Amino acid sequence: MKKSASITARMSDIITIERHILHHERQNPEATGQLTRLLYQIAYASKVISREVRRAGLLDILGTTGDVNVQGETVQKLDAIAQETFYAAFDHMGVLCCMTSEEVDDIIPIPAQFDLGKYTLAFDPLDGSSNIAANVNVGTIFSVHRKITPGRDGTSEDLLQPGRRQVVAGYVMYGSSTMMVYTTGRGVYGFTLEPSMGEFLLSHPDIRIPDEGKIFSCNMGNYRYWSEGVRKYVDDVMSTDKERDRPFSSRYIGSLVADAHRTLLYGGIFMYPMDYKDPSKPKGKLRLLYEASPMAFIFEQAGGMASTGEIPVLDVQPTELHQRVPLFLGSKREMKEVIASIKQHG
Ligand code: P6P
Question: Is the confidence at residue 22, as pLDDT, over 70?
């Protein structure tokens, strides 16, 4: 009896993502179940992509399809698989009115034969895919908004909403383990895939970013293209002639999900600043709708900050599906310091 009791006790301690999602649905009296089904499908699609990522080296799918995506980047085969997996997971679910993806130029409508729902989905099916061949962590990033326009079909207006209005934001990281991290505006929760069960189990209840850290993360190869304020901040962080109360380490993977996840757990700052290589045409690199905005919702929910360097990312009014923005994510202390440096020095 005792043995079964301990198993029962262990079972009751295990919180699957499904159990967590249902628990939150019950707390929301107006819930219709559409959001629950949406989150279930994200978890399902992530398991399928995780399996493909893990087998990549074995199935000779590391190569490219030869296609070029809307960003002008050569599409890796896994990108194509991840894109198709996410699309196929949602086109028939009756929870979305439209989608947008890094891999597709235009808005993605729901096929006429399927029911429509009240949410939009913006996603990067496999961010960091240029790192795949080196077996570096890659990830899926997703962002959900409510439909705001009348009529049946979703429009770009439903997608081009400020991040402050997101309903759900999250990412899946395919690393030494597969983790899904998301927020619905009630804190940030992390789930780790238990491969033998095929279940995401709650491993990081209520993630909070430290108020300060000692890791800065940026591509120093672009240093000469940054504004004076950013360069001064980095010079200060790296300086040894000042009495800094903590030495900094530099960590940069070049895969947003991996760099953001480490920053979220350990603290510090991640930066992809505005590039002034052509001062007449300053540009960001990371995309607003399906990279910066979902990460910003997560970081603010975890007690951190997310900025373009001038305004909170969540307050940016999108104008184009694939628009790019400069992105700073991190602990309050480092974020306030870099924003102050930009304000003072430009
Ligand atoms: P760079 C990956 O291609 C990506 O979109 C993000 O995941 C990552 O943060 C960034 O680009 C890396 O860019 O210019 O440092 O290689």
Answer: yes
- Closest Cα to atom 12 of ligand 1: 254
Residue 34 has pLDDT above 80, yes or no: yes
* Candidate of 101, 103, 286 to mutate for ligand 1, largest count of ligand atoms within 8 Å of Cβ: 286
260 within 8 A of 270, measured Cβ to Cβ: yes
Which residues lie closer than 8 Å to 295 by C-beta, 6 or more apart?
Answer: 141, 169, 171, 256, 260, 306, 313, 327, 329
- Could you tell which of 127, 172, 288 is best to mutate to test the pocket of ligand 1, judged by most ligand atoms within 8 Å of the CB? 127
- Residue 314's φ and ψ, nearest 5 degrees, are -65, -10
Percent of the chain with pLDDT over 90: 77
CA 192 to chain centroid, in Å, comes to: 16
Domains of the chain: 2-204 (3.30.540.10), 215-345 (3.40.190.80)
User: Picking from 6-15, 16-25, 164-173, 329-338, which range would have the lowest pLDDT averaged per residue?
Assistant: 6-15
CA–CA separation, 45 vs 11, rounded Å? 25
Count of residues making up the chain: 346
From the CA of 272, give the closest atom in ligand 1.
Answer: 9
Ligand 1 atom 2: residue of nearest CA: 128
pLDDT at 9: 54
Average of per-residue pLDDT values in the chain: 92
